[in-house]
């Protein structure tokens, strides 16, 4: 069962910015509440209170809610009404609640003429109020007689419920001690038969029967949760093998692309997560050799082609597609030679002139590219200049030197003449 706590009321006060001191309307239906408490101290400005489909046995602690105008207690176990003296304008709804004679008096005689203006959608008129005041002594005597009869009936119902509960507990203990013959699918069929038998068994509409049905539903819910948790543990996916090998896993079944950015020396992951998925539901974990992304509890794991730097990695969402983009720098720096502007221009010229040296695998050696930024194609092959020849001219100085050598020559008799 759920107690009325401050956290519960705040969670139900989202329309009031989670503020409860100025709260005028709150809905606490289907919360398995068994007792009305604390609301009169925390929500003094309350005008509308929804408490239907709970397990509340009596109306209490609402007398201090002076501004309360509407109280819905349908589908509860109401047997007593207390502390309504301070509520002057209150609209009640008890429909389909387990009411005793005190509550039934509200329907037949309206014993609180100044406190209740509406009852189950019907306005209480002046004639009904006058009628309730006539023969009040006789009405009170009749109410006491009905109350005694009702109390005896409720005592029998409680005794019968206690006996049935004891029998049910004994049968459960006997089944737990007995050996299980059927297993697997046959056992599930047996559970379905028990559930069908429980709901088809006739019973009186009493607070005990409603509480028993509630407990049965809770047991079924807890059993299913236990089975789901057990299946999750048994079907726990292996992410890393015993020998340390990382496996690729894609539980959310999302499209992705892994690319190598050579210019930036990065590994890029583009994961196609849902466009309107809240980023708080994503958890990214980058390791040197793999990346793991948890999307709404489902695991996406991918082995990387090379080692990366986890501390320098960046994860972000695309503003257009909503995809998750993870940039992971490589651990090994890539050293590339810098290409000078001259070589780029020369390559462009070679491509425009149709030079096939690159296709042959030959490279041109650049000689002092600072002096010449553009190659002069006109001076690659120089033409030979023709020199016009005139009459032969001898230099006088050279001729005088040769004549002087002849004059100074002396013939040696020892050397024979040339023939």
From TrEMBL:
Database matches in InterPro entries: CS_DNAAF11_C, CS_dom, Leu-rich_rpt, LRR_dom_sf
Principal location: other
Similarity comment: Belongs to the tilB family.
Any GO BP: outer dynein arm assembly
Compartmental location: Cell projection, Cilium; Cytoplasm
Biased composition (Polar residues): 167-179
Region annotation (Disordered) ranges: 154-188
Residues that span the membrane, as ranges: none
Sequence ranges assigned to domain CS in this UniProt record: 249-340
Gene3D superfamilies from the UniProt entry: Ribonuclease Inhibitor
Descriptive protein name: Leucine-rich repeat-containing protein 6
Domain of life: Eukaryota
The keyword Zinc is annotated on this UniProt entry: no
Species name: Lepisosteus oculatus (Spotted gar)
Keywords annotated in UniProt: Cell projection, Cilium, Cytoplasm, Leucine-rich repeat, Repeat
Record bears the keyword RNA-binding: no
Basic and acidic residues: bias regions: 154-163
Gene Ontology cellular component annotations, sorted alphabetically: cilium; cytoplasm; extracellular region
């Amino acid at each position: 069962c759920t107690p009325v706590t401050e956290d519960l009321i705040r969670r139900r006060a989202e329309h009031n910015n989670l503020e409860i001191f100025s709260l005028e309307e709150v809905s606490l239906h289907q919360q398995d509440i068994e007792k009305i408490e604390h609301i009169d101290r925390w929500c003094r400005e309350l005008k509308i209170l929804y408490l239907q489909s709970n397990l509340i046995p009596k109306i209490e602690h609402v007398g201090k809610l002076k501004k309360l105008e509407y109280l819905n207690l349908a589908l509860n176990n109401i047997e007593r009404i207390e502390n309504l003296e301070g509520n002057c304008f209150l609209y009640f709804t008890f429909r389909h609640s387990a009411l005793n004679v005190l509550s039934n008096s509200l329907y037949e005689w309206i014993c609180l003429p100044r406190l209740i203006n509406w009852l189950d959608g019907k306005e209480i008129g002046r004639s009904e109020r006058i009628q309730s005041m006539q023969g009040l002594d006789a009405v009170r005597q009749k109410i006491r007689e009905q109350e005694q009869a009702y109390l005896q009936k409720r005592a029998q119902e409680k005794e019968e419920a206690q006996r049935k509960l004891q029998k049910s507990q004994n049968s459960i203990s006997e089944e737990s001690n007995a050996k299980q013959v059927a297993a697997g699918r046959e056992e599930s069929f047996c559970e379905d038969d028990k559930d069908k038998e429980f709901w088809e068994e006739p019973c009186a509409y009493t607070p005990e029967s409603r509480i028993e049905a509630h407990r049965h539903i809770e047991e079924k819910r807890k059993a299913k949760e236990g089975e789901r948790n057990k299946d999750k543990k048994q079907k726990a996916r292996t992410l890393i093998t015993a020998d340390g090998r990382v496996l690729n896993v894609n539980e959310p079944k999302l499209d992705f692309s892994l690319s190598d950015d050579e210019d930036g020396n990065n590994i890029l992951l583009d994961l196609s997560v849902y466009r309107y998925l809240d980023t708080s539901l994503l958890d990214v974990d980058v390791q040197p050799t793999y990346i793991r992304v948890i999307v709404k509890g489902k695991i996406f794991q991918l082995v990387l082609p090379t080692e990366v730097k986890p501390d320098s990695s960046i994860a972000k969402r695309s503003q257009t597609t909503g995809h998750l983009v993870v940039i992971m720098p490589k651990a090994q720096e890539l050293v590339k030679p810098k290409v000078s502007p001259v070589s780029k221009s020369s390559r462009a010229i070679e491509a425009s002139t149709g030079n096939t040296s690159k296709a042959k695998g030959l490279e041109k050696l650049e000689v002092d590219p600072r002096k010449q930024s553009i190659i002069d194609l006109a001076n690659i092959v120089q033409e030979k200049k023709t020199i016009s020849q005139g009459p032969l001219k001898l230099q006088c100085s050279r001729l005088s030197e040769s004549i002087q050598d002849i004059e100074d020559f002396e013939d040696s008799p020892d050397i024979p003449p040339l023939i």
